[in-house]
Specification:
With 224 residues, the chain is mainly α. The protein folds into two domains: 1-152, Serine Threonine Protein Phosphatase 5, Tetratricopeptide repeat (Alpha Horseshoe); 153-224, Up-down Bundle (Methane Monooxygenase Hydroxylase, Chain G, domain 1). 84% of the residues lie in helices and 0% in strands. It has nine helices and no strands. 23% of the residues are buried.
Amino acid sequence: MLNVYLNEYEQWNALKKWWQKYNAIVIVMFSLILLSLSGYKYWHWHQDKVMQQASNTYEQMMLASANHQSKLIRQYANELVKKFPQSIYSDAARLSLAKLAVLNHEYKKAEKQLEWVAEHSQIKELAIVAKIRLARIWFVHKEYNKALAILKGMDFKVYLPLVDELRGDIYTSMNQFDKAVKFYRKALSEVQNYGVGNLYLEMKSNDLIALSSQNAESQVAIKK
């Protein structure tokens, strides 16, 4: 029993000496761990709070949009862009600001917002939507090469019918009817893959085929 007691006494003395030597370091390390845990929890709490605020503002913007309240839409959208610039809500707000700008014929402002989303959005679908809307603006302003360039390489299947129909419209305006028909037919095929048809798209394609035939006949008659 005495040996056991002595061993325990020695252990206790060794522990006391170790604590006297290292207690300051242990306390500092423990404090740092507690501070790190507290900071981590605060950061997550803060992030959750920020996202909740962004979500609430976005809901208000959508409500204003449903009620066609342009002033409120712009107010909430600008708030999202300024206060939550790295969030998905900011991207959606920029799309709303671009839409308002187009309605007011402020096309440069619309382009600025759409270009930002197209280049910086981390959500691929939003970037594609921004590119399609940019292409439509450039198409209307007869900047055909720019419109075709931004549509190039899009491979997101859901949007391909829209993209290829827009390509067809652009080539029609450029009087390149063969290319236009090609993209109209392509868009029609893509739409049918989803089990739906598009009568208007078929009409555009058929009208162009007829127009191309008439032009070809006219060219032959001229040569004769």
